[in-house]
Amino acid sequence: MKISVIGAGQMGNGIAHVFAQGGHQVVLVDIAQASLDKGMATIAKNMDRQVAKDSLTEADKQAALARITTSTDTASGVKQAELVVEAATENTDLKLKIFRDIDANAPAGCILATNTSSISITRIAAATKRPAQVIGMHFMNPVPVMKLVEVIRGYDTSDAVTQAVMDLSRAIGKVPVEVNDYAGFVANRILMPMINEAIETLFQGVGGVEEIDTVMKLGMAHPMGPLQLADFIGLDTCLAILRVLHEGFGQPKYAPCPLLVQMVTAGKLGVKSGEGFYSYTPGSKDLKVAPAFAR
Ligand code: CAA
């Protein structure tokens, strides 16, 4: 299948990775050449991990990389696509603009999917002339490792399009789960209030960063504590999703913790900015509590 992925960031390069590994022709599109270069380098690095772990051969890695081309122009990047997966920043206006652009340039039969983690599929679909062909395809980070694809039907999404996306997800080794289109869907409706509560617990001084994360790792068998996971997802993304939940349901229980708002305002976004609840040094796996939270 010919698949275009819009956005070469954390999620976009992972999505391009798994489709190329699954035998599909991928065009990775991003307005910035530097992001494309960084995305391709990340894909190669992550495939190297798989080669080192014997889950991918060197020849299959080379073949998968050769199936990915890049483009800085959305119009030409989607011209031949049978499926477009948009994985741009979690910003409604930006996504609406991208979907208008894709709709104007992709072939009539092309399915338009979004990797949004919380924005209404129905709203995105309404920006196009093909709402029956618009669907949510929500991958989890790190995409090459996590099995789940949350498949979200918008108000008009057709059965045939839903089936095609479920089948395609299975064919690349993922487990698709079909859900309906309400703020946060299922994954973030449950995950983000937990992360927000962990931040609230820290804010109130009930426990420190390491204590809260250790309770959840060892007590609930989570691979990462909620504060480390928030850093990994990006604190700006967590805040954006909580705002969608808060606005979508109008319930105070979704109000973002003031500490989260403060950290995002200060540019402390987690792994990607080098500091969140923990401090990060590129190339090091060391996890050090950030100076603001050292006890
Ligand atoms: N690409 C390919 N392989 C990768 C990888 C990547 N980006 N990252 C990790 N791996 C592989 C490693 O090579 C390793 O492989 P083996 O099992 O074959 O040895 C395996 O994954 C485990 O990695 P590590 O040993 O480096 O580290 P770890 O055991 O600490 O696991 C983790 C890392 C998989 C990220 C784990 O900590 C984890 O599962 N964390 C929680 C992730 C999670 O909850 N993701 C969902 C976030 S929410 C979201 O994405 C959606 C949203 O809308 C916000």
Describe the protein.
The protein has 295 residues and is α/β, with parallel strands linked by helices. Helices cover 47% and strands 15% of the residues. The protein has helices at residues 10-21, 33-52, 58-66, 74-77, 92-105, 121-126, 159-171, 187-203, 209-220, 226-233, 235-249, 258-265, and strands spanning 2-6, 25-29, 68-71, 83-86, 111-114, 134-139, 148-153, 175-180, 278-279, 288-289. The chain is globular. The mean pLDDT is 97. Bound molecules: acetoacetyl-coenzyme A. Residues 46, 49-50, 53, 117, 140-142, 144-146, 187-188, 223-224, 229, 233 line the site of acetoacetyl-coenzyme A. Acetoacetyl-coenzyme A is lined by residues 46, 49-50, 53, 117, 140-142, 144-146, 187-188, 223-224, 229, 233.
Q: What number is the mean pLDDT?
A: 97
Number of strands: 10
CATH topology group of the largest domain: Rossmann fold
Q: Shape, please?
A: globular
Structural class: alpha/beta
Number of helices: 12
Biggest sheet descriptor: 8 strands, mixed
What are the segments in which pLDDT stays under 50 over at least 5 consecutive residues? none
> CATH top level of the largest domain?
Alpha Beta
Q: What share of the residues does DSSP label as strand, in percent?
A: 5-15%
What compounds are bound to the protein?
acetoacetyl-coenzyme A
If strands are numbered along the chain, what order do they take across the biggest sheet? 3-2-1-4-5-6-7-8
List the helices and strands and how they pair.
Layout: E1 2-6, H1 10-21, E2 25-29, H2 33-52, H3 58-66, E3 68-71, H4 74-77, E4 83-86, H5 92-105, E5 111-114, H6 121-126, E6 134-139, E7 148-153, H7 159-171, E8 175-180, H8 187-203, H9 209-220, H10 226-233, H11 235-249, H12 258-265, E9 278-279, E10 288-289
Parallel strand pairs: 1-2, 1-4, 2-3, 4-5, 5-6, 7-8
Antiparallel strand pairs: 6-7, 9-10
Helix pairs in contact: 1-2, 8-10, 8-11
Bound molecules: acetoacetyl-coenzyme A.
